Amino acid sequence: MRDPYDVLGVKKSASEADIKKAFRSLAKKYHPDTKGGDAGAQKKFQEISGAYDILGDKEKRAKFDRGEIDANGNPRGFDPGAHGFRGGPYGGQQAGAGPGGFQYTWTSGDDGETVEGFRPEDIFADLFGGGVGGRRGGGGGRRQARQGESYEIALTVSFEEAAKGGTRRVYLPDGREVDVRIPVGLRDGQQIRLKGQGGEGKNNGPNGDVLLNVSVAPHPYYTRDGNDLRMELPVTLQEAVLGGKATVPTLTGSVALTIPANSNSGATLRLKGKGIPAHGNAAAGDLYVKLVVTLPEKPDAELRKFAEGWKVAYDPRAKLR
C-alpha cells in the first residue's frame, strides 16, 4: 500500500482531528454504498480504510513514523530466512516469530492478498500436533481463539432518515451487504455498532463488529436543537400586518399555521409535537417557526405608491439609541 499520509492527503504533522476529518471526507466520497457497488470505488475505499487503520491508531502511527512498520502494518527489516522460513505452501512470503512473539502477516503468491493475524505457532501446531515454546504435549496443543476483524465505515443519512428512522443497506469491505436499522432521533456523529457482523473469528473466536460512523446531511430549511426543530418562514407584508394562514412543511406533512395580525420579522411561533418524533424516554420535540417579512423580488408599483403616501408614526430603531 502507498504511504498512508499520501492516501489520506494529510501532512505528517497532521493532528488526530485532521486525520479523522480527511478519512471521513474520503470515505464518504468513495464508499461503495454511494457508488452502486463500483469495484474501483471499493478498492479505493479499502485503501483509505487501510491508511486510517495505521494513522488513526496512536500506537501504529508512532511505529510507522519511527519506521518500525510499513504501510501495511508489517514489521520492517524482518528476515524470514534467519528464522528458518523459506517459501511457504502457497509460494508466497511468510514471516516467522520475532523475539517478542508478536504476530505477522504474509502475502499469498496466488493473488497477492494480504492476510492478517498469522501466527507461526499455528504452523508448528499443524506439523507437530502441539504448540511451541514448551507447550507441545502428548495430548496436542490448542490454537488460541482470536476475534475477527472489526470494520469501521462512514455512513451518511438524510435529515429525515435520522429524525424518523428507517433502514439502509450497507456494503461491507468483505463484499457482503447488510440492512441496518436507523433509530429514530439519530444524531450527527453517533456510532452504530453491528455486533458480530465483522470478520469471521479464528479458532472458534468471536466475529468482529461493524462500527458505522454516521453523518447526518443538512436539511434545506430545518435546523435541529436537541429534539426541537427550527425554521424560518417567509411571509408577505400583508400577512404580517393583517394576519392570516400560511402552509408550513413538517416531518409528517404540511400544516396550516395561524399568523397573528401585526407580526414582526423575528416573531417565533410554535407547532407542538412537530419536531423530532418521540423515541426511548424522550418526548416528541416541537417545531419553532420564525417569521421573516419578505418583500416581492420584483418592484411592485402599488406597494411603492402606498409606501410613499404612508406617514410613518413609529421609530423601529429607537432601542438602538
Question: What does this protein structure show overall?
Answer:
The protein is an alpha+beta fold. Helix content is 23%, strand content 22%. It contains 8 helices and 13 strands. It has helices at 4-8, 16-30, 39-55, 58-65, 120-128, 159-164, 237-242, 301-309, and strands spanning 104-107, 114-118, 151-157, 166-171, 177-182, 191-194, 210-216, 223-225, 228-235, 244-248, 255-259, 268-271, 287-293. A 4-stranded mixed beta sheet has the order 8-9-13-12. Strands 3-7-6 form a 3-stranded mixed beta sheet. The chain is elongated and about 90 Å long. Mean pLDDT is 80; it is low at 78-140.
Question: What topology emerges from the helices and strands here?
Answer:
Layout: H1 4-8, H2 16-30, H3 39-55, H4 58-65, E1 104-107, E2 114-118, H5 120-128, E3 151-157, H6 159-164, E4 166-171, E5 177-182, E6 191-194, E7 210-216, E8 223-225, E9 228-235, H7 237-242, E10 244-248, E11 255-259, E12 268-271, E13 287-293, H8 301-309
Parallel strand pairs: 3-7, 9-13
Antiparallel strand pairs: 1-2, 4-5, 6-7, 8-9, 10-11, 12-13
Helix pairs in contact: 2-3
Strand content range: 15-25%
Rg, nearest Å: 30 Å
Give the SSE order as H and E letters.
HHHHEEHEHEEEEEEHEEEEH
Question: In one word, what is the shape?
Answer: elongated
Which spans have pLDDT < 50 for at least 5 consecutive residues? 78-140
Return the structural class.
Answer: alpha+beta
The major beta sheet can be summarized as:
4 strands, mixed
Number of helices: 8
Distance between the termini: 66 Å
Q: What portion of residues is helical?
A: 10-25%
Number of strands: 13
Biggest sheet, strands in spatial order?
Answer: 8-9-13-12
What does the average pLDDT come to? 80
